[in-house]
Design goal:
This protein has a domain of 218 residues: FAD/NAD(P)-binding domain, CATH 3.50.50. It has 15 helices and 18 strands. The two termini are 29 Å apart. Pfam families: FAD_binding_3 (PF01494).
Amino acid sequence: MENSNILISGAGIGGPALAWWLRRYGFGVTVVEKAPGPRPGGQAIDFKGEDQLSVLRRMGILAEVRRRQTGGADVRIVDADGRSIAVMPGEFTGGDVEIRRGDLSEILYDESVAAGCAYVFGDSITSLTEAADGVHVTFERGAPRTFDLVVGADGIHSNVRRLAFGPERDFVRFLGYYYALAELPPGGSDGDGDGTGVMYNEPGRMVSVGGPKAPAFFVFASQELAYDRYDTEEMKRLIIDAYAGMGWRTPEILERVRQARDLHLDTISRVRAGRYARGRVALLGDAVSGNTLGGFGTGVAVVGAYVLAGELARADGDHHAAFRRYEEVMSPYAKVARSGGNAGGFLAPASRAGIWMRDQVFRRSLLLKMMIKMTDMFATNISLPDYPAPVDRGRRAAEPR
């Protein structure tokens, strides 16, 4: 088989899913991840439509995903006095199956390790140099190595895309909003106590607790900020500054944010990379088609992992043919992720009139049903190819289709 030694950057969702499929087809796989280990927690993510569920079923993990699913809780939208205005139903936020990102990452990591994939944590790629015999890769910490192919499954701020395709500004458009997720320490009232989250808005700002995304979830309008995405204390200060003077229970929530040990802050952005591959380097998931909080990223990444690995297996490792076919299959399907709306403007409208109009969607069942129907239509806009039967290198057999 050609190109049998593959490096994947990113151990979130798409990277381990791709690693599992590649190893099942007989490829040698190494995954490099900047974080010191698999990342726990994180927001709830969801899968929509039979195509996405079919990939989980073919991997043999759908039953475990269902066992750990969060249930798609409702979110109650309130005014400054805590009075209910509308309810964002779980079927709107949770898709067919909802699961915490950390739980899904753990499942995929365990399965890929059992299949024989190698992981290198606490390291990152510093250069990619393509040559006739492969891609020469240097790392921040590890010794240089040569791989046949490299895949960037490292998110909207993809390091691989920057090194192989060009600077981030050429591919990522900031949409004028930030979002933050925080694991709050004990001591406050989170949600309604029955699994229902509670959400409050002021123009350009939203805060919720106890909902499906995280114990505390923030979305706010802002100019682009300069900060270290790995400096938790700096990110806390930015959130506290952004929410200064906000009503409802926000001051109490911010006090608990000061004590949070796990916190994530990032832009709401859209990726338009154009091409899925260049030479021996390919992109997967948000690195090529991300749209933050758009509701399709995880499903598109998992389907993309199935297609990329399957095309490489079908082409017997010929990356020219496999990468071309991978783009042909995935580009139409991922269009909704690339070109979808701005979740920031929906979750944190810029005006009180905008907040009122957004709330009407959840008060009027016909509008809500139309939105859910459109979402379901986009999620099933692909005909999954059948690929060669994989070698049985993993713990689980595929579940019945």
